[in-house]
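Quick one - first record:
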Amino acid sequence: MPQSYAHPAPIPSQSIIHSTLDRVDYSDAFRLTLPKGATHTIDAVAKQVFLMTPKWISALMRLRDAIVSVIGLKTSPVTEIDLNKITLIEGNSIGLFQVLKRNDSEIIFGENDKHLDFRAGLLLQKTDHGDEVIFSTLVRFNGWLGKLYFLPVKPFHKLVVPSLLNRLRK
């Protein structure tokens, strides 16, 4: 019986995220079984996850950007994004998240910065219980600054990702 809320899971062995970093210092994944009755596509799922964020997550990102801009790390662009005009092809971006790889069932987003490189993968797969989405994260630290940066980020990451997935239940 599938769980109705996002929960920790292993990164699927067939995920293309495995080929995106040569070294991984942190990884996790969360899984959610999507509501039955609707047709799900990886593009629609990705747009909903990354563009329809709760206000508290947007506030956290603004706080993060204000802090890291002082030390020269990349920040999220401040622009309005039209869901209808976004095409999730390799090289395009949703905010800070650039599409690095994709296929019909998975999109890998990511960014390389001086402190760390990260990958966020969304995989949509069919199961006997319905469609499932798995949100996988890989991080490679680029020295002590990446490790230091990730210390306060990690607990929020473990709250943010399930929250983003749980919004797909609606």
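second record:
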Amino acid sequence: MSNTLKSFLRLFASLSNSGAKTHPNPGLSRLAPATSLQVPSKKANPTAFHDEEFIQRLHEILETNFHKEELTIPIIAECFPMHESHLRRRMRKTLDSSPQAYLIEFRLKKARELLAQPQLSIKRICFDCGFKTEGHFSHAFKRKFGRSPRDFR
């Protein structure tokens, strides 16, 4: 957690614990009502996720939808909701990976888990993990794990 955020949370805690319901300057109380600081919630500002919350939410989205071929970076960005370029920057900063590379890696890890089940064909695993073609799946799998899906079994 950043020092700025820690300072903000300490300030927020001290102000909310003071219990003062009057305006700090009594002469201005009739002009400006007393307000308290609001910590941004997920609903109020969805891009204000902390890194851990961001990663957890991203994994929930990917876990639920990784099998869908039509899952793209713009769709993932809409799930947060945030602009696609903001999602790219956030993932680079937080995960040190581009969204597309992270999505493919996530799908490949799921495929590796499914390859442990001998009753599933490689072709079925390919499509169940959201890859459009078996050739693309095999090439990406071999690049990531050093062996083809057939050899991995």
